[in-house]
Amino acid sequence: MRSRSSVLELAILGLLHTTPMHGYELRKRLNALLGPLRAFSYGTLYPCLRTLSAKGLIASSSTDDDARTLGGKRARIVYRLTPAGTTALEAMLGEAGPASWEDESFDVRFAFFAQTDVDTRLRVLEGRRLRMAERLDALASALASGRDADSYAIELQRHGMDQLKREVDWLDALIETERAARPKRVHRTRAR
């Protein structure tokens, strides 16, 4: 998951996994899920829906009955996940490499953790924690070097450090919870 479009594809497939939806409802839920800073426009959403449909990952149907109920307005198109879409979603959620814990995709991945297995969740959380700890160390080094004499720049760096510390603490707590919930593996020895 490297691009914004693949993050959007994951979010759409994840939302459609729970229930079929029309475009307006999808956009509303995407914006609620991802927050106001990552709002998606219809100009982004509908091309992605067409792409997913062309790949056979989603299917659409028209709601003519709804159109009559709405006073003859245009019928809504309802999108649903196909079996191939379910398989693609499972594969996307099973990925735990560096792209899954980077800023662009981590929040979307985290939003669908309930559909992700414990081992994958742990790998993503541990990778994210490592990345945030690296950023924290780099920021602490920059602050300690005193290169920026501007007091506002220094305050901005301190603010960034505080945010990173909170995220690392949050990730530590999540990792501890996931490890505690992880099923114990029983090692069996063969009788000889």
Instruction: Please report the first level of CATH classification, the CATH class of the largest domain.
Output: Mainly Alpha
Share of residues in helices: 55-70%
CATH level-two architecture of the largest domain: Orthogonal Bundle
DSSP helical segment count: 9
Counting helices, strands and paired strands, the structural category is mainly alpha
Strand order of the largest sheet: 1-3-2
Taken in chain order, the helices and strands follow as HEHHEHEHHHHH
Describe this structure in words.
- The protein is mainly alpha-helical and 192 residues long.
- The chain has two domains: 4-95, Orthogonal Bundle (Arc Repressor Mutant, subunit A), CATH 1.10.10.10; 117-181.
- It has helices at 4-18, 23-34, 42-54, 64-69, 83-94, 98-101, 103-111, 118-145, 151-181, and strands at residues 21-22, 58-63, 76-81.
- The longest helix is centred in the last third of the chain and has 31 residues, at 151-181.
- The protein is flat.
- Mean pLDDT is 86; it is low at 66-70.
Task: Name some characteristics of this structure.
68% helix, 3-stranded antiparallel sheet, 192 residues, mainly alpha, Arc Repressor Mutant, subunit A
Break the fold down into its secondary structure elements and pairings:
Elements: H1 4-18, E1 21-22, H2 23-34, H3 42-54, E2 58-63, H4 64-69, E3 76-81, H5 83-94, H6 98-101, H7 103-111, H8 118-145, H9 151-181
Antiparallel strand pairs: 1-3, 2-3
Helix pairs in contact: 1-3, 1-5, 1-7, 8-9
